[in-house]
Amino acid sequence: MKKNAWTDEALSSKDEDALGRSPYAERAAALIHATHSFESSAVFGLSGPWGSGKTSLVNMIVEELQGQHPEWAVARFTPWATSDISGLLGEFHSSLAEVLPKKKGKQVRQALAVTASVAAPAANLIPYAGGAAAEGARLISEALAKSPSWQVAFSKASKELAELKKPILVVVDDIDRLHGDELLALLKVVRLLGRFAGVQYLLAYDDETLYRSMTASSAVNPHDGSAERFMEKIVQYPIFVPPLLRHQQVTRLNTGLAQISRETVDDGLSGQRLGALVKCFTDLLTTPRAIDRYVAQLQHHIPLLPPNEIDDEDVQLLTLIRVSFPALFNAIPLYRSELLSGHTGEMKFDAKSITYEPFDIESLLKVVPTDRRGTARKLLVSLFPKNQTKDQLSVHASTRRQSVQHEEYFDRYFAMGILDHDVSDATVDAAVKAATSGDSEPLTRLLIGTADEQRSLVLGKCQSPSNQPAGDPDRAQLAEVLAEIANLLPSDDAVPFSDLDQILAWIAELLVALGKDTPPETVQAVLWKIDNPARRIRAWRRVENSIDHAYRSAKPTWYDTATATLVDDSIAGFLNHLKQGDDAAAGSGVGYQVHFVLRHRAEDLRAAVRELLDGKEVHISVLASRLVSAQTITGIQPDWKLSEDFDQETFNQIAPPGRDPWYDEPIQDVDVRDLSWANRRNFAAGRVSPPPTAL
């Protein structure tokens, strides 16, 4: 295979043969020479599918024929240079005349010219179906009156050719490119002139395409074998392009793919996936042209994105679909959601469960020829494994994060570029690396001030295992940068998976990964970079959950110390909030502090609150106001209202037992959309019961 850009050029010499077809070309050339006679003519038909290498084989046959027998002259007749019989006859005679000796062939050329002038109008009136028009009959009569008859002209030209003793091979390549009427016109020319003594003919074509063109012209019946019988009258010696053997297909594919291979991770899986799908490649890429065209497209597509921004194997499979099933490839983006999820989005109910209705990829495969749907199905399921059915064998799917089966990378494979709503993995990797070294600017720029959709995409890439630092100092440094970024993000309690939660979870993962003997001050330094107490607790709750799973026995030494410090801070923060009464800051997240302390040191919080109440520093109504929550309906424009469900259970754990006149106050009519502490305190009146005497 040539190393330069593919141009679909035929081989010019058997020295370039990489498929072992030279011996076949030698035998074909020997057959042409052995059957030659100056008293007759023969037509050879070389048939093979488009792209199988017919022209290359023709060139090797001609090279061998003239190499072994220099006396042979070869005329190249190009039938698609003209479209009617007159033009075809003229082109044929010109091609034949060009290979004749300059001096000795002068009389032959004159005889051929007379033959062409006689045959052209006559041939032009040969009907394909039905009789010639009356006007045509008149024209031919006038022409024949001025010229010798066809038989006289043809006999004279044949005699002149025979006397030259010059064997001639007329090569007519790609006759299947002609349309129906054009094809029949050519075959009529061959029949008219195909009996020049001493002249052999080599026609190259694809049987299937040829018969389809003949059928389209209504000259033959598509079902009775008349097309085959028609060609039997034209071609005496059919020869065939040898098909590619499986090992030749694989070798040619390997040679081509090796030119575009890029560095991959040595994960023990590289190559296994495509190897398992080799039959898909050999079923679809059956000719040298098909393989080379496929590789040429990969040579263009794969370099469009840097390594590690896509899965190269996914590109190879999608390109195979594109060159083999263009309609299927164009339909894939239309079924993006179904292919990525494996379901239609509609709910399926039965007696035991509620599930999604699985997506049936058979509906997508209707654009694929029936005999190729099995192959197309294997390729689709390998790319989108969630569409595998229970009766299928194990799927060979990508294990890479950048696979087309993942939502955030899907678009890249059809744009072959990083779109405006996308961010390159290299950019994200560089930003995380900079943050690990203490430079927060690149990562902050990526995460702050961008659209929510893009921020979520960046965060997903940031948390790739390959981006996580390996050493404790780097982990702590990255966690501090993330804590500062968390301070800049808005709090969105209306959604369960906010960007803020993702960053707090990432901070927790970095802290849990620290060594057991890490100084508590290191952990505390990260936590106190988060300037909001509620967010600090949210991050620590994730640490607690991860610690419970990661450490089955002894917990790291820093854990208890950091927890105790955070509990002390939460108690102090909550008490201070109570002391500020109605003037305390709104949205401070005191609920997080209360519940966090109750999980760790409930008695300490209870005692501290009682001391404030007994000292008249805080009224019981202020405490109750902190447990009046607000609510809205997720999924619509936020409309926050005070909740009717007072948190009596938590109140019982904090407030001291005993009656207070406030408990007997009536329920007040308040504006439920007023979320101030004063309004919450008024709202709590008449809705709160005193704690029981014994908890």
UniProtKB/TrEMBL annotation:
<protein>
    <submittedName>
        <fullName>KAP family NTPase</fullName>
    </submittedName>
</protein>
<feature type="domain" description="KAP NTPase">
    <location>
        <begin position="21"/>
        <end position="302"/>
    </location>
</feature>
<dbReference type="InterPro" id="IPR011646">
    <property type="entry name" value="KAP_P-loop"/>
</dbReference>
<dbReference type="InterPro" id="IPR027417">
    <property type="entry name" value="P-loop_NTPase"/>
</dbReference>
<dbReference type="Pfam" id="PF07693">
    <property type="entry name" value="KAP_NTPase"/>
</dbReference>
<dbReference type="InterPro" id="IPR052754">
    <property type="entry name" value="NTPase_KAP_P-loop"/>
</dbReference>
